[in-house]
Amino acid sequence: MIDQSGRTLSEAVLLAADGGATVVQLREKDCAGREFTERANIALAACRSAGIPLIINDRVDVALAIQADGVHVGQDDLPAMTARRLIGPDMLLGVSVKSVEQALAAQAAGADYVGAGAVFQTGTKVSSVIGIEGLKAICEAVKIPVVAIGGMSVQNGKEVVEFSGCAGVAAISGIFGESNVVDAAREFRMAVDAAKGKR
Amino acid sequence: MIDQSGRTLSEAVLLAADGGATVVQLREKDCAGREFTERANIALAACRSAGIPLIINDRVDVALAIQADGVHVGQDDLPAMTARRLIGPDMLLGVSVKSVEQALAAQAAGADYVGAGAVFQTGTKVSSVIGIEGLKAICEAVKIPVVAIGGMSVQNGKEVVEFSGCAGVAAISGIFGESNVVDAAREFRMAVDAAKGKR
Hints:
The structure is a homodimer of 199-residue chains.
Chain A: H1 9-18, E1 24-26, H2 33-50, E2 54-57, H3 60-66, E3 70-73, H4 80-87, E4 92-97, H5 100-108, E5 113-116, H6 131-141, E6 146-149, H7 154-164, E7 168-170, H8 173-176, H9 181-198
Parallel strand pairs in A: 1-2, 2-3, 3-4, 4-5, 5-6, 6-7
């Protein structure tokens, strides 16, 4: 399994971790359970070797099957409260939100963090844009960490964190779309760390 | 949620049960977890009221979430052994198989039954055909019940059961594609019962 840049999944994970990624979320659309599980096991081995957690997107059963560190659900996936019940108290639960209302509901349902976005327009996923104001409102409303997602780049990452107070940023093409994944992840990490130092 | 004939999911389940269906399997392709769960809850309420079990296709997490009676996995879904581990010893586990080898593996992994097919060509699903000889070989190889699936009709159901010794037949269009679902289910049930009486 090779991405567009000729990297295997394992290589991509290790490069991102090498650059300072603190968590990896595996997102597989249009992928049946067997193949998803196989890819998840590959990603998990790489994450374990890098010492960072792996979060599985959507499929609670896949997360349970491979004993991932957590699962991330969107508003179209299993309800957060159901996911929490299935994974128990110890696995991480993330929830995608677009509004303060959704963020508060996720927090009440037992989410450990929310992914808020899309902050900006993105080529990865068709999604409505909440902007940095929408992100900031969510950050101010909930007690759990908020991760900014959607159109995040090294260029805008620092400003987004400074403005909103979000705990971190998540990127797909902003990291894996770059030819040098280690450098891209490192620049992201430095931008976020610098912004957090300022707040 | 209405099918092509204007029936709701709940109505379709109740009509099939009224005609003598002994189990309902809910299969939802291209349906996100939230909607699948909502539909599964509707089907479960109908099955409970009809006194028959509901089996969820593919998604072990959805089956667990709604506390269905069982889950059915194909060769592209979570491995049967993984599914069994996740659902525990009491929930029903069905596995789709095309060969004696797959059927024996499913039995060893803890399947309660196998769905073997496609026995005949079908419009519902693109699938290779095993024929009644392939079905019979599977029935003779395993100790667990074998359900014939794929192109099953009232016309061929009796002959298939008589020839192969399968425990039952499953149909999608053979029942829900008929204008009178109760009658179609009843004719299936009578054909199968008659064939089993003969063996």
